């Protein structure tokens, strides 16, 4: 009879050999951005060190991505990790059989993602989760305003309206089609609402529109709840944000399952793991809000203390 230790060691070696050994993973990045790099670092930390990893950078060029993907199709790795929209689209257009895991893609459904061989991680936490986080910060403010583009976020807003009713909230949604409609939409909403919810919508959110949202809500003393710790650092009251390293870890977990032959997630979009709360204490004071100490302790990103109400961001965390 074989010794127990020998049998256990043999079992462990056999179970790991399926995803180690000569396994190869290709990482395709849409561009070199700190947010993407953190996701890649989280992914690498979550896979066995014996797996061979090769990285490719599209430099923002879809044509470059398609060329890289074609070369990978000719000599396929065991799995591809695509970070960002252009990387994911390039993989969808050129890779048909190799498993692909992607992340950091806003509105993947608009780009027919994920394909049958792909598993994605959503950028947006579910509306239910976001509204619950909003309510935890401002529990006595029930009229929530939101501005959106139907083409970009219509399905999400309809889901949010259903969830808002269940949570006892009134969601006042205003649709726009162009960025020049934002100022009027904000002016119409602010007198009617208790809090403005700024969602990830490429028509609504831009570098030029952000200062207007921040200044308008602070002047009107209407809390701004959003998706970005960068915006909270600049003056929004709070946000529910994704940690890119955690997203990378989640992608690694999916990749390990796919490499082990578990394809249950193929063709599906996964809910992001463990979104974090971000709070600006200076903004809360300006708005006359007393945030519960237990909520402050739970925050993964905390801004405030002595100094200006709005601060310059030290980094960007994925503003679309």
Task: Report on the architecture of this protein.
With 320 residues, the protein is an alpha/beta fold. It has two domains: 16-122 and 244-270, Rossmann fold; 127-242 and 276-303, Response regulator (Rossmann fold). The chain has helices at residues 4-17, 34-45, 62-74, 85-94, 127-137, 150-166, 182-189, 210-220, 229-234, 244-259, 281-286, 293-298, and strands spanning 24-29, 52-57, 79-83, 100-103, 118-121, 143-148, 170-175, 195-197, 224-226, 238-241, 269-270, 276-280, 301-303. A seven-stranded mixed β-sheet has the order 7-6-8-9-10-12-13, sandwiched between helices. Strands 2-1-3-4-5-11 form a six-stranded parallel β-sheet, with helices on both faces. Helix 4 (85-94) links the parallel strand 3 and strand 4 (100-103). Helix 2 (34-45) crosses helix 10 and helix 3 crosses helix 4 (85-94). The radius of gyration is 22 Å and the shape is elongated. The relative contact order is 0.14.
């Amino acid at each position: 009879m074989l010794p127990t230790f020998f049998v256990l060691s043999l079992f462990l070696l056999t179970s790991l050999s399926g995803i180690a050994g000569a396994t190869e993973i290709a990482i395709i990045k849409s561009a070199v951005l700190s947010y993407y790099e953190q996701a890649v670092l989280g992914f690498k930390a979550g896979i066995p060190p014996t797996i061979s990893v090769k990285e490719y950078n599209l430099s923002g060029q879809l044509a470059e991505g398609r060329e890289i993907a074609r070369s990978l199709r000719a000599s396929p790795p065991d799995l591809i990790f695509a970070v960002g929209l252009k990387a994911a689209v390039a993989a969808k257009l050129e890779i048909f059989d190799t498993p692909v895991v992607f992340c950091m893609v806003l509105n993947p459904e608009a780009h027919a993602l994920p394909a049958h061989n792909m598993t994605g991680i959503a950028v947006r936490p579910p509306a239910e989760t976001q509204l619950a986080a909003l309510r935890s910060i401002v529990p006595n403010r029930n009229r929530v305003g939101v501005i959106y583009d139907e083409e970009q976020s219509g399905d999400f807003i309809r889901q949010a309206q259903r969830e808002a009713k269940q949570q006892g909230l009134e969601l006042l949604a205003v649709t726009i089609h162009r960025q020049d409609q934002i100022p009027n939409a904000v002016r119409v909403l602010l007198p009617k609402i208790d809090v403005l919810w700024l969602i990830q919508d490429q028509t609504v959110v831009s570098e030029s529109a952000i200062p207007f949202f921040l200044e308008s809500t602070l002047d009107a003393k209407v809390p701004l709840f959003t998706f970005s710790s960068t915006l909270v650092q600049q003056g929004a009251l709070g946000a529910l944000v994704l940690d890119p390293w955690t997203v990378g870890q989640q992608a690694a977990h999916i990749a390990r399952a796919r490499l082990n032959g578990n394809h249950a997630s193929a063709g599906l979009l996964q809910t992001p793991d463990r979104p974090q709360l971000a709070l600006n204490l200076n903004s809360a004071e300006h708005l006359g809000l007393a945030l519960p100490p237990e909520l402050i302790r739970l925050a993964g990103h905390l801004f405030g203390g002595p100094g200006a109400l709005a601060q310059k961001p030290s980094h960007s965390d994925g503003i679309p």
